[in-house]
Write a sequence for this structure.
């Protein structure tokens, strides 16, 4: 397990007082062994198996988690994901924490896969955003990858995105904003500019931006921006994206489509841990 995964899982176990499960300690003999099967109750894409493994092994290193469906696996309803065996106290005390992680992360992977499938055959990639659960960004973005999506910037220090409020700070002057960033960053750093209309796209192109975010534009305007850009910058569509609209957006010819819903609105995938 990674240090990030271990820290998140340990914090969740402590939040649930799983190391001091008074019901389990009172009713379950310390020597009792158990075996439980983790299954999907609905079809979907698995993500978060490492969190399941970490949950049980942090509670008791004697626990063994046999993974049947690694992250990125498409499972049917009733499909087996993993088998957990070891001291019964640890299996019982970790059940809810393990499910909380894998249900949430598999929900993200499943939603991502639906968006990816919706744009199949076009050039568009499906990107995530920074609209993640505080503290969970690394594992939620991993779940996006498991679903076939592509990660956008991980944090504010990993890539440049000049947004509307940044532009307001320099009087709306796109060229000045880009020049300021160029002066502050190493040679070759990629710059993305958010544009509300085609005039801002023209300004971003003239300033040499490598990426342009088309914010809440109509399909016709996006098509015009694609024609205007002619490959000189990578175009990302954002705003108003859902499973009903994403195909039409992709067919405008944009390179990327960012979808905040992947991480802020994905419903949990129903999985259960059934004791044998």
């Amino acid at each position: 397990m990674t240090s990030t995964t271990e820290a998140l899982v340990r914090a969740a176990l402590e939040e649930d007082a799983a190391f001091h499960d008074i019901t389990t300690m009172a009713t379950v003999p310390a020597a009792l062994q158990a075996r439980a099967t983790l299954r999907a109750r609905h079809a979907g894409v698995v993500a978060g198996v490492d969190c399941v493994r970490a949950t049980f092994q942090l509670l008791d290193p004697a626990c063994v988690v046999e993974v049947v469906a690694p992250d990125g696996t498409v499972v049917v309803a009733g499909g087996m994901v993993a088998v957990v065996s070891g001291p019964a106290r640890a299996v019982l005390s970790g059940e809810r924490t393990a499910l909380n992680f894998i249900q949430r992360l598999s929900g993200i992977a499943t939603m991502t896969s639906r968006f990816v499938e919706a744009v199949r055959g076009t050039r568009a990639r499906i990107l995530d955003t920074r609209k993640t659960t505080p503290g969970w960004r690394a594992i939620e973005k991993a779940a996006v990858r498991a679903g076939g999506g592509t990660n956008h910037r991980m944090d504010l220090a990993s890539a440049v995105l000049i947004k509307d409020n940044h532009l307001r700070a320099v009087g709306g002057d796109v060229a000045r904003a880009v020049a300021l960033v160029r002066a502050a960053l190493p040679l070759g750093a990629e710059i993305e500019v958010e544009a509300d209309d085609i005039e801002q796209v023209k300004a971003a192109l003239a300033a040499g931006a490598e990426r342009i975010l088309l914010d809440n534009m109509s399909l016709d305007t996006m098509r015009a921006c694609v024609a205007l850009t002619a490959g000189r910058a990578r175009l990302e569509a954002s705003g108003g994206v859902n499973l009903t609209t994403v195909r039409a957006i992709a067919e405008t010819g944009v390179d990327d489509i960012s979808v905040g819903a992947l991480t802020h609105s994905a419903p949990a995938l129903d999985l259960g841990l059934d004791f044998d």
Notes: The longest strand covers residues 33-40. The mean pLDDT is 97. The first helix runs from residue 3 to 15.
